[in-house]
Amino acid sequence: MTDTILVTGASGQLGRLVLDNLIASGKVAPADIIATTRNIEKLSDYAAKGVSVRAADFDDPASLDAAFAGADKILIISTDELGVPGKRLAQHKVAVAAAKKAGAKHILYTSIPQPEDSLVTFAPDHLGTEEAIKATGIPHTILRDGWYAENLFMSLPHALQTGSWYTSTGQGKIAHITRADTAAAIAGAVLKAGTESNIYTLTGTKSRTAEEIAAIVSAATGKPLAVVHVTDAQLAEGLKGAGLPEAFIPTIVSFDANTREGKIASVTNDAETLSGRKPASFEDFVATSKAAFLG
Fold this sequence. Notes:
The chain has about 300 residues and is of the alpha/beta class. It contains 13 helices and 9 strands. About 45% of the residues lie in helices and about 15% in strands.
């Protein structure tokens, strides 16, 4: 009998890519996939393919009883609730409890690298969720997703316009991985999940400093990009001056601090092992994303 797979947050960018990979694998029928989201209209295209689409709201525990019913493998994609401290972890714990109540045979979760000592402000949310999952006693897979290459779209287009990239990463390195390669690995983990528990760290194939990243982006776009090293305090002031909401500035700064301290520099072959394909090189990603970097 085929296991029924449930994916939460399925209408998000990562969730949709995971669904695409599961369907494309040919190893699971659309009818054996449950996709949950708060607004089911966003998943009408998957419903048309035969995927079971259900409404689920992590802020409404009662909604999860019906949404999770009959699911054997449950992939909990972390929410983007960062505005209210503690809310994200509370949401995740509700989902974990619902998965256990539904009788799930395996729980999967998207975390971050080294949540136990990460400097990223929301790392405790991930660590707390991992601990809640382990406490259920249910076989589980923790997928510690590395930093998306697409996250560079948040800072480098503006930096290319000015010619200067202000960062407090120092000589810290980061192994960017594309969202598509992350999703392919997650889908592979879902299909692989059985009675064992595992932790995987999904990264790109090479870690690089800001200077190395800037050189690749500059060469691809034909625009000069100088790395300007600043302190965390100076970075925060610059972000404030640029009009970034003050509530989010500590989180942005924590990303750079985490990189500087070498806490996201690891390189693994987990993504390739799970997906069966080699992750795209950073150079290829930048080349194909030239328009996005130029803004």
